Amino acid sequence: MSKSELNMADNPDALNSKLFELATAAMNRAYVPYSRFPVGAAIEAHSGEIYAGCNVENAAYPEGTCAEAGAIAAMVMGGDTQIKHIYVMGKGDLLVTPCGGCRQKIREFSRADTEIHICDEKGVRKTLTMEALLPFSFGPDNLV
């Protein structure tokens, strides 16, 4: 879904609200029968397209997927490869930040100034840049 389809190209507050809503909806659809810890993610790609994902657990625990990985997979399937913003939504008193593996996955498709918004059901609790979330990271530019 694009920003123009959402009629939000000139309204960043409406876009942020929509990304927050999509992350919430994704969290509410998570498949978490084992941990009972739902997480949702929503991405705005640099193209303006919007993607979402939720965590999906599996009885063979290492075979589950994180919400961020699901949203990134949807983004790549949609033809995009650059994250502009990502909203990560989870419940709890502590910040629900991306796990180490997801930080690296986000890094693959980000720039140092890409914004990662850490949310709970009430709103954005903290916004970090990719550089702050994963300092001194290894990425595609290291392989050039």
From TrEMBL:
Taxonomic superkingdom: Bacteria
Record: active site: 68
UniProt: substrate binding residues: 55-61
Keywords: Hydrolase, Metal-binding, Zinc
One Pfam assignment: dCMP_cyt_deam_1
The protein's Enzyme Commission number: 3.5.4.5
Biological process per Gene Ontology, one example term: pyrimidine-containing compound metabolic process
Catalytic activity: 2'-deoxycytidine + H2O + H(+) = 2'-deoxyuridine + NH4(+); cytidine + H2O + H(+) = uridine + NH4(+)
Cofactor names: Zn(2+)
GO molecular function, one term: zinc ion binding
SUPFAM superfamilies: Cytidine deaminase-like
Positions that bind Zn(2+): 66, 99, 102
Chain's role: This enzyme scavenges exogenous and endogenous cytidine and 2'-deoxycytidine for UMP synthesis.
Family stated for the protein in its record: Belongs to the cytidine and deoxycytidylate deaminase family.
Protein name: Cytidine deaminase
Gene that encodes it: cdd
